[in-house]
C-alpha cells in the first residue's frame, strides 16, 4: 500500500509504502477532526481491518501495553516524517535518487512486493518521472548502475554514497 498526499494541482508526494500487517491512519483517532491526513492506495490485493475510534479507545483502556505500542508507532512515524522533510529540503533530486536506490537494494525482497515504477519513484522523491528517468540514464552512462529487464543492478554503491554526501 502507498500512503501519499495529493496537492490541489494533482501532484502526489508519496509518504511511504507499507507492507503486510502495518497500520495506518491512526492520527484521526486522537484528534477531534476526523479528516484523513493522507490518501492510501492498494498496490496488490489486501485485507483491511477497520477499528472504530470508540472501540480503539476501549482497547487502549483494557490493554495498557497497547498505549506503549501506539506511542512507539507515533515515534517511528515522526522519525520517518522528519527524515522525509530533511531529504526534501536539503538534498537534490540526484542525491535523493541515489539514497533511494541504495535503500531499496538493502530491503529484503518479497515475491508479493510490487516493483517501483519511475512514476512511483518520482512521487516518493518529490519530483516528476522525466527527472527520475534522466538521472537514471546519467547513472547508467557513468557506470553506477545497469538496467536488467525490470530490475536495476547497482554497480558502484560507493559512488552513489559519494553523490548522497554531495562530494561528487
In short:
It contains six helices and five strands, in the order βββαααααββα.
Helices and strands in order:
Blueprint: E1 2-6, E2 12-17, E3 39-41, H1 53-62, H2 64-90, H3 93-106, H4 118-125, H5 129-141, E4 145-148, E5 151-154, H6 157-165
Antiparallel strand pairs: 1-2, 1-3, 4-5
Helix pairs in contact: 1-2, 3-6, 4-5
Keywords summarizing the entry:
alpha+beta, two-stranded antiparallel ribbon, 5 strands, elongated, 6 helices, Arc Repressor Mutant, subunit A
Structure write-up:
- The protein is an alpha+beta fold.
- It has two domains: 2-89, no CATH class; 92-165, Winged helix-like DNA-binding domain superfamily/Winged helix DNA-binding domain (Arc Repressor Mutant, subunit A).
- It has helices at residues 53-62, 64-90, 93-106, 118-125, 129-141, 157-165; strands at residues 2-6, 12-17, 39-41, 145-148, 151-154.
- The strands form two sheets. Strands 2-1-3 form a three-stranded antiparallel beta sheet.
- It is elongated, with a radius of gyration of 19 Å.
- The model has no long low-confidence stretch (mean pLDDT 89).
Amino acid at each position: 500500500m502507498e500512503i501519499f498526499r495529493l496537492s490541489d494541482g494533482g501532484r502526489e508526494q508519496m509518504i511511504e509504502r507499507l507492507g503486510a500487517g502495518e497500520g495506518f491512519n491512526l492520527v484521526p483517532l486522537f484528534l477531534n477532526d476526523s479528516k484523513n491526513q493522507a490518501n492510501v492506495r492498494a498496490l496488490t490485493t489486501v485485507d483491511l481491518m477497520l477499528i472504530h475510534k470508540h472501540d480503539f479507545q476501549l482497547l487502549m483502556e483494557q490493554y495498557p501495553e497497547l498505549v506503549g505500542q501506539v506511542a512507539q508507532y507515533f515515534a517511528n512515524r515522526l522519525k520517518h516524517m522528519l527524515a522525509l522533510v530533511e531529504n526534501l529540503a536539503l538534498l537534490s533530486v540526484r542525491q535523493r535518487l541515489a539514497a533511494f536506490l541504495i535503500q531499496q537494494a538493502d530491503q529484503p525482497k518479497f515475491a508479493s512486493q510490487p516493483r517501483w515504477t519511475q512514476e512511483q519513484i518520482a512521487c516518493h522523491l518529490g519530483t516528476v518521472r522525466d527527472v527520475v528517468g534522466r538521472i537514471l540514464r546519467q547513472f547508467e552512462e557513468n557506470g553506477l548502475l545497469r538496467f536488467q529487464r525490470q530490475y536495476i543492478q547497482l554497480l558502484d554503491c560507493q559512488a552513489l554514497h559519494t553523490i548522497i554526501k554531495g562530494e561528487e
